[in-house]
């Protein structure tokens, strides 16, 4: 598009250019939070699960098989387009595994329904080894060959209000 301006209107041209630049900057600024809402790697800060600090999910993981490898816990929105979708996790904590029971605090962006997934990479190779690695999900759904380890978001969804919601996940191994 080629716009011509009457003689002596250079100031108007500069103002329009600046105005379009400002609109573009506002558009980028409002688009950023949507991008930034996913893939937040965080530390296990239990102070974020104290009374009045929510919304958050305090997750107690039972049945960790061994004190070796890494335990990864991730939160997702419990809906059809985001639950276990690649790159759609909200926050992730990854720590060395400790046999028995471990507890985590996962802050969530706002009140809503969330799903939590836990994976124990027993040998720490960063790959899922079906015969040795373990896993679990919020509400402890049945995991079998028919759902290929990906139960419906309706089975794992946990309603979280403005406070801290406590849940327990039981690890499963082959």
From TrEMBL:
Keywords: Signal
Signal peptide range: 1-36
Source organism, top-level taxon: Bacteria
InterPro entries membership: DUF2141
Presence of the UniProt keyword Signal in the record: yes
Keyword Signal among record annotations: yes
Protein name in the entry: Uncharacterized conserved protein, DUF2141 family
Organism name: Novosphingobium mathurense
């Amino acid at each position: 598009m080629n716009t011509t301006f009457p003689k002596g209107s250079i100031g108007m041209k500069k103002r329009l250019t600046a105005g379009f630049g400002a609109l573009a900057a506002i558009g980028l600024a409002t688009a950023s939070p949507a991008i930034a809402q996913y893939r937040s790697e965080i530390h296990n800060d239990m102070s974020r699960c104290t009374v009045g600090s929510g919304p958050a999910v305090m997750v107690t993981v039972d049945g960790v098989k061994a004190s070796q490898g890494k335990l990864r816990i991730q939160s997702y929105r419990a809906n059809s387009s985001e639950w276990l979708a690649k790159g759609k996790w909200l926050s992730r904590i990854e720590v060395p595994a400790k046999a028995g029971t471990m507890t985590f605090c996962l802050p969530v962006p706002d009140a809503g329904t969330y799903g939590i997934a836990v994976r124990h990479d027993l040998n720490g190779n960063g790959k899922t080894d079906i015969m040795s690695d373990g896993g679990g999900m919020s509400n402890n759904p049945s995991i079998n060959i028919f759902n290929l380890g990906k139960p419906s978001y309706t089975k794992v969804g946990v309603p979280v209000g403005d406070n801290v919601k406590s849940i327990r996940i039981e690890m499963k191994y082959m």
